[in-house]
Design brief:
Helices cover 42% and strands 18% of the residues. By secondary structure, it is of the alpha/beta class. It has 3 domains: 1-32, no CATH class; 44-144 and 281-310, 3-Layer(aba) Sandwich (Rossmann fold); 146-278, Rossmann fold (3-Layer(aba) Sandwich), CATH 3.40.50.2300. This is LacI family transcriptional regulator.
């Protein structure tokens, strides 16, 4: 009891006794077991699990900071894992989180099978989906205006006079991929520009795959004059391919204009015209965590699920 009181702040413990306890703590390398302490006072684990698709993507680092900011306000810590856009890895990660008795989950879904995210499988642990919706999962969801943002970005290229506009995007099974492609197609239709299947590359989940697809587009007999990239990893892959092609040609050509859905690192230093469809990833994290803690509050489990859609804005980085 004396040790416990000392570590908790020293209330009702004489200073000389506190000094002896703290000396022993330092010598032993002792750390309080907060999990055991919270269980003793029926406070739960004090943890929230956050599953994202790519730890290397700065976008998700900002997102996680937003979740952490709200969690800290509630005296809760987050643990993070990456699914790599793989449903099986997602299943294992969620099981690991539940095994650690997390009090809630924030998930950027990989798409595909969702049996492990059903209420029964989660054992009542609250779940919030972020960035992507998931058919068949009744959970609070925070989305970005994917369709409207893609439409605005593509329209900007069309207004600038481009008609050969390529599309680089992630898998159609992912809700963002479906929604952003729909916005792209709607903009072409609004301007009376037919969709050319040869200019559409879908399914690139990483930079390397996007670079390969962009290289194939540049090799076309009539290559695109502009490219819509449905996320920042596709943008970086496209820029790598364009940079390699410019080097091959002695640095004379600049390559096609680019619209990127999501900001990316060093965008302002790129040698081609770039427009960003921007939104606040950190605020996306905050909104997701706010919904989660509302769901975790007493009576929150019986509230109707909510869907929030965050706005986007166009930023011309280099015209």
């Amino acid at each position: 009891m004396t040790v416990s009181r000392t570590i908790a702040g020293g209330q009702n413990v004489r200073p000389e006794i506190q000094a002896l306890v703290l000396e022993a703590v330092q010598a032993l390398g002792y750390h309080r077991n907060d999990n055991a302490r919270r269980m003793r006072v029926n406070k739960g684990s004090g943890l929230v699990g956050v599953a994202i698709t790519n730890l290397a993507n700065p976008y998700y680092a900002s997102f996680a900071l937003g979740v952490e900011e709200v969690a800290a306000q509630h005296g809760v810590r987050i643990i993070i894992g990456s699914t790599g856009e793989n449903t099986e890895r997602e299943r294992q990660l969620v099981a690991d989180f539940l095994g650690r008795q997390v009090e809630g989950l924030v998930l950027v879904p990989a798409g595909g099978d969702s049996e492990h995210l059903q209420v029964q499988a989660l054992g009542g642990t609250p779940l919030v989906l972020a960035s992507r919706a998931l058919e068949g999962v009744d959970a609070d969801t925070v989305l970005v205006d994917d369709t409207g943002g893609a439409h605005a970005g593509t329209s900007a290229l069309l207004k600038a006079g481009h008609r050969r506009i390529a599309y680089l995007g992630n898998a159609a099974s992912v809700s963002t991929g479906h929604r952003r492609y729909a916005g792209f197609c709607r903009a072409l239709e609004d301007y009376g520009v037919p969709l050319d299947p040869a200019l559409v590359k879908r399914g690139q989940q990483d930079v390397e795959a996007a670079q390969i697809s962009m290289t194939a587009l540049l090799d076309l007999e009539d290559p695109p004059t502009a490219v819509f990239c449905a996320n920042n990893r596709n943008t970086i892959g496209a820029l790598k391919a364009i940079g390699a092609r410019v080097q091959e040609r002695g640095g004379i050509a600049t390559g096609p204009a680019i619209v990127s859905f999501d900001d990316f690192e060093l965008a302002e230093l790129m040698p081609v015209p770039i427009t960003i469809i921007d939104h606040d990833a950190r605020q996306l994290g905050r909104e997701s965590a706010t919904l989660l803690f509302a769901r975790m509050a007493p009576g929150g489990a019986i509230a109707a699920t909510r869907e929030i859609e965050m706005p986007t804005r166009l930023i011309v980085v280099r015209s």
